[in-house]
Structure formats: C-alpha cells, structure tokens
Amino acid sequence: MSPFPYSDRFPINRALPDQGIDRQEILGQLEAMATAEDASWETGQCSGTMYCGDHDHYEFMTEAFARFGHVNILQRDMCPSATKMESEVIAMTLDLLGANRLDPSEADADPVGLLTTGGSGSIGHAMLAYREQARATRGIDRPNVIKPETAHPAFDKACHLYGIEVVAVPVDPQTTTVDPEVAKAAIDGNTVALIGSACNYGYGTVDPIEALGQVALDAGIGLHVDGCLGGFILPFGRELGEPIPAFDLAVPGVTSMSADTHKYGYAFKGTSVVCFKYKELRNAQYFFLTDWSGGKYCSPGIEGSRSGGLLAATWASMMSLGHSGYKSYAEAIFATAATMRASVERHPELRIMGQPTFLFSFTSDEFDVYHVNDFLRTRGWRLNGQQYPNALHMAVTRPQTRPGVADRFDTDLADAVVYAREHASEVPHSSAIYGGVAGGMNDEADSFIRMVMADMMDGHQDLPAVD
Q1: What is the DSSP pairing of strand 222-227 with strand 191-197?
Q2: How does pLDDT run across 73-91, given as a tens digit for each residue?
Q3: pTM of the entire predicted model
Q4: Which helix (H) or strand (E) holds 155?
Q5: 394 forms bridges with which residues in the sheet?
Q6: All structural domains of the chain with their residue ranges
Q7: What is the pLDDT of residues 364-412, one digit of tens each?
Q8: Does the bond joining 298 to the residue before it have cis omega, within 30 degrees of 0?
Q9: Would residue 454 be called left, alpha or beta, if left means φ above 0 and alpha means ψ between -120 and 50 degrees?
Q10: End-to-end CA distance of the chain, in Å?
Q11: Which fold has domain 80-306?
Q12: Which CATH architecture does the domain made up of 322-456 adopt?
C-alpha cells in the first residue's frame, strides 16, 4: 500500500511547498477526497465507524467547532466557556450513566468525571487512577487488573504503558461473557481492579456487571465498566424495554466507567468521558509539579493543551439532540439490529454468538465464515472480522436505519451463504485485523497489512497465525 494515496490525482508533497498554495485549491483537494471517502459509508453498508451519518449534524458541529477550534482550553481564565461546557458534558454523562441513582449503601460516593480524547484515553486514565490509588492506600507496587478476554485491547495498551500486569481470564464461549466466579478466582493481593464490558466490542454482549460488582466489593477492589461503545445507547435501550442487564454507576461495586461521546454520543472523533464514583479515585491520577521554575504545574489528565473545538462540538451535539433525540435514534438502531439478526438466524449454517444488543456477531460451524465476508465485500459491505473463532460482526449505527439497507443485507447475506457453501473447501481472502475490517480494504492494502503482521510475528512462531 502506497503511503501516498491519491498520487494519481494530486501532487505528492515530500517537503513544504516553496510558496504557499492557494487556499481554494487546497479546499478543492480536500473536498474531492472527502466526497470520495464519504461514499464508502453513505450506503449504510459499513459496520460501526460512522455512528451518526447525518451531514446536517456534522455541519452543525463544524460551526460549533469553528468558534473554539483556535482556543487552548488550558487557559481557563481566558475561556471560562470551556469550564461551563466541560462541566456540563461530564454532568450529563454522569446522569445518563446512573450517578444520580446510587444505592443507599454508597452514600459516601461523589461522582465526578474527566473529558478525554477517546476510549483508549478514558481507559488509560482509569487504569492510571487505580494504580496510583492502590500505591498510595495499599502500598501495592506490582499491581494487576483482571480482564475478561473480550475486553478491549486498550486495557492491555494502558497497562503496558503504566506497568500494570493484565491477568486475562476466559469467557464462556456460549454467552461470550465472563463468569464472575472465574474472575473472582484470579484475584490476588496485588489486584487493584476488575474489568467488565457493557458491551464488549467483539460480540455486543454485556458482562454480568451486578455479579462482578459484588465480587469487587467482597475483594475490596475497584470495578471499571467499559461502556466506550455502549455508554450512550444502552441506557436508552433499557428505557425502551430491551433485555439489557444493569451495568452502570448505579450498580454497587462499580467504581468507574468509560463512555465515548464520539460513538453513539454522535460527537466528532476525539472525545470520551471517564466517570469515577469517588472523587479521590479521580484525583489519584492528577499530576502535580509545584517546584518547576516555569510555575506550579497541575494536569488533571495526560493532555496539557487542548483545542476548545472538540469540546464545543461535543457539548453542542448533546444539547441539540437531548434525551428525546438520543432515545429516538436508539429505538431505530435496536429495531434495525433485530431485523438484521433475524436475517442471520434464517440461515442454519450461521450462528449468532451470545445474547447481543445493538451490535451482533455471527460465525459458522459449517464453513469458514470469512467466505461470507468475501462475497459481501463484492456487494459493498464492510463488516468487522474476529478470530477464535472466525466470526463477523455488525455494529448497527444510524446509516443502517435508512430505508432499504436491512433489506439489502437480507438479500446479500442469502447470496453470500450460497457462495460460502460452494467455496467451503477453499481458503478465504478475508482476515481478522482490528481497523482493517475483515479485509475490507483493497487487495493491495490487505496484503500490505498481512506482510507487516507477519514481520512483527517473525521469531514468535508460538503465536497463532494472523488468519
């Protein structure tokens, strides 16, 4: 894959131009690229990625961004609006996630939050908080966290960066969720937190958070619920009567939760909220340096300077949609997900994994399900690939709720199953690469990523093959 796509249409810039290029020419190039790339999701055939898909909403947020994009919200004396907007984004998220419905047994709770740059940021800040609090209150210098295998790799990334051991535990292959007793058995004297997902990225299933909360309480450790994907849609699903178990801050034992405003919060990419039930836990990850010659330095999060644009756009998105808007979108998404799951269930060769929500995953015991994906790619579908076992998932978003999309899925899936049966003895072309969407790139890009992965695994023959 070339590092310079569009080289057939626009000049390649390997250095600054001698003279600045006309702004209209630059905007013309950007417009051409954006138009071409929007076409890949506007059909409604792309899993996840584009959660809103509403150009009017994007334009509205762009206007909000434009008013504060140049502002550094580090300087709050110059931009008090940032304090207003950030406080309200956090407060609205806390309210949505049950902070105002706490159990009387947790009367000492004081829910707070932090705005971050995404799911990895929210998870990273939470893991840092648990490490620091355990070091200060329990003297733990070799911390570990208990992570169900299905929990997001962002936990592994954060723990790698912060020197925390990840103790991965298996999930039930039928439910795709963790057994609380299995998680309990993995806890030791160095465990600082337990992790649960609501819902997990792979299967769209919700871990038994209430039972995990009790495990955490009994062990005297924290419980972080990863709601990066589901945090802004599952609450409305429960309100609509969907069979979603309790999962939020109102559950006793839950001490923190992450939720991405840039997913089903319908904000621009680059924003998320991490919520803490107790202020002292949030404060544990603050950084202070009071004797620096440049002045007393205090950072509430990893980032220092931040643009006010994303904050303004996020606040504008939440304010413009309101409770009724989010609920209306959730209702359409859950209904569409049910319709698309029914299409899968009509084929005995395919099997839905676990009890999913708005995101569902399916595999096959008759053939490699990547054959299904190979065919769907020819019809313009872009599904996410998984492994162990090979499976495909569809994260239903607003673009799928458009008229005719679910019907196309039903028709194309039926043809894909026929293709998969006919090619069952062959090796499929698809692969399971996060972000690569089951080989949903062009063949050149797919081959490039396979080559990189093979190079990374060279000398590690004990690891499973990429495919």
Answers
A1: parallel
A2: 988 889 999 999 999 999 9
A3: 0.91
A4: helix 153-162
A5: 360
A6: 80-306, 322-456
A7: 999 999 999 999 999 999 999 999 999 999 999 999 999 999 999 999 9
A8: no
A9: alpha
A10: 19
A11: Aspartate Aminotransferase; domain 2 (3.40.640)
A12: Alpha-Beta Complex (3.90)
